[in-house]
Write a structure and sequence with these properties.
2 helices, 4-stranded antiparallel β-sheet, alpha+beta, globular
């Protein structure tokens, strides 16, 4: 599989493995209320891609959109799989296709832009896979050129140049 490692992440600091609701609340408050500088990912150490996030009510997690580190509150960290579709509506971000990260157990998903059903990884040569190499695993990926250890205002200005990230502090 291209750029995908084991589902579980085990080579990170033991203290980083626990992630509680209180941790999520603190990270969210610091970043979005206090406008503290973005913290580095506990897996890859990069800034500008990692931070607390929320989905449906009650689904709180932290994630890095550079290496695929993903951890829901109260669960072990996972490495999500990077995907990109080549439909005409798929956005670009920081000089590369936007990456849609999917749970390691997912086999397919619906493109959020064209609504086509996509196969994440295919053994069939007639079915195109949308699985790609994670930016952290590709030394030539443009996202590795994103300046590091910058301030909240810097990242807010940096990410506003692309429609898919406008208004964000972290990708």
């Amino acid at each position: 599989m291209m750029g995908v490692s084991d589902k579980r992440l085990t080579d990170i600091n033991e203290d980083s493995l626990q992630y509680t609701e209180a941790d999520w609340e603190e990270e969210s408050y610091d970043l979005f209320v206090m406008r503290a500088n973005p913290q580095p990912c506990p897996k890859c150490g990069r800034t500008g891609f990692y931070g607390p996030r929320a989905m449906d009510p009650g689904r709180k997690y932290r994630a890095c959109r550079l290496c695929g580190f993903w951890q829901f509150v109260g669960h072990d960290p996972l490495r999500f799989n990077p995907t990109a579709h080549d439909c005409e509506d798929w956005p670009q971000c920081a000089r590369a296709p936007y990456i849609w990260w999917v749970h390691p157990d997912e086999k397919r998903y619906t493109c959020p832009y064209c609504r086509q059903q996509l196969v994440i990884e295919s053994q069939n040569v007639f079915v195109k896979s949308v699985l790609i190499v994670a930016p952290i695993d590709d030394p030539d990926h443009p996202w590795l050129k994103v300046p590091q250890n910058r301030s909240y205002p810097y990242y807010q200005r940096f990410w506003e140049h692309w429609a898919v990230t406008k208004g964000r502090v972290i990708l």
